[in-house]
């Protein structure tokens, strides 16, 4: 496979993220990456089956998100009582008790942001597979990448595992289907974002038919 399509008359320069050396942008074949001549840092990469991988992993993340909100996240057995805890249930309980900011942060960083990322990726990448750009695709791509640093699925998962160390002393805790689905969302989101290089996405958007 050859390089991804480039906008005509494009004489762009690409700066190294590590040492700022400027390079003339030249196309690379599928599976090949362009590296800095001075420090060897990655400039951009033509990833194999990029659009298909980004769309497929984003779709898988969306489907897993449905499971996260349908099934219990944690199941706790204490004093002959069983409690099923869902992600949104736990966040809304925090909002109604004494930690409204924490509850709202959980909803924002583990529900809204991953939804924006996965939804945006599908909206932008799926039509590009057919050489088309969806209406407002540039705007969607911009906001998709802006929301990326706020996607804190892995931070939340790590926080849950740490808090479990304390919880197991007072209750018998099991992971529900929601927890495993949430771990799947984390992996799928990472694979979707790593599936396509930003340079490639913007080039494809520029040459795509509206
Ligand atoms: Zn460099």
Structure, described:
The protein is built from 7 helices and 7 strands, in the order ββββαββααααβαα. The chain has 210 residues and is α+β, with helices and mostly antiparallel strands. Helix 2 (87-96) packs antiparallel against helix 3 (100-128), helix 3 crosses helix 4 and helix 3 (100-128) packs across helix 6. The protein has 2 domains: 1-46, no CATH class; 49-207, no CATH class. The longest helix has 29 residues, at 100-128. The chain is elongated, with a radius of gyration of 21 Å. Strands 6-5-7 form a 3-stranded antiparallel sheet. A two-stranded antiparallel sheet has the order 1-2. A two-stranded antiparallel sheet has the order 3-4. Bound molecules: zinc ion. Zinc ion binds at residues 16, 18-19, 21, 36, 38-39, 41. Residues 16, 18-19, 21, 36, 38-39, 41 line the site of zinc ion.
Short description:
With 210 residues, the chain is an alpha+beta fold. The protein is built from 7 helices and 7 strands, in the order ββββαββααααβαα.
């Amino acid at each position: 496979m050859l390089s991804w399509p480039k906008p005509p008359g494009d004489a762009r320069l690409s700066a190294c993220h590590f040492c700022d050396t400027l390079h003339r942008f030249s196309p690379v074949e599928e599976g090949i990456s362009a590296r800095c001549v001075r420090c060897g840092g990655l400039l951009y990469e033509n990833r194999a089956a990029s659009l298909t991988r980004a769309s497929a992993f984003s779709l898988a993340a969306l489907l897993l998100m449905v499971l996260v909100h349908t099934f219990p996240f944690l199941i706790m057995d204490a004093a002959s009582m069983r409690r099923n805890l869902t992600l949104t249930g736990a966040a809304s309980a925090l909002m109604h008790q004494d930690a409204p900011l924490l509850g709202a942060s959980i909803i924002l960083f583990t529900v809204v942001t991953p939804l924006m990322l996965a939804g945006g990726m599908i909206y932008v990448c799926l039509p590009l597979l057919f050489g088309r750009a969806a209406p407002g695709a540039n705007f969607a791509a911009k906001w998709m990448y802006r929301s990326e640093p706020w996607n804190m699925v892995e931070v939340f998962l790590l926080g849950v595992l740490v808090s479990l160390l304390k919880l197991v002393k007072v209750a018998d805790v099991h992971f529900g289907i929601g927890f495993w689905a949430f771990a799947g969302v984390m992996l799928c989101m990472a694979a979707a974002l790593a599936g396509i290089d930003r340079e490639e996405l913007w080039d494809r958007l520029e040459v795509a038919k509206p």
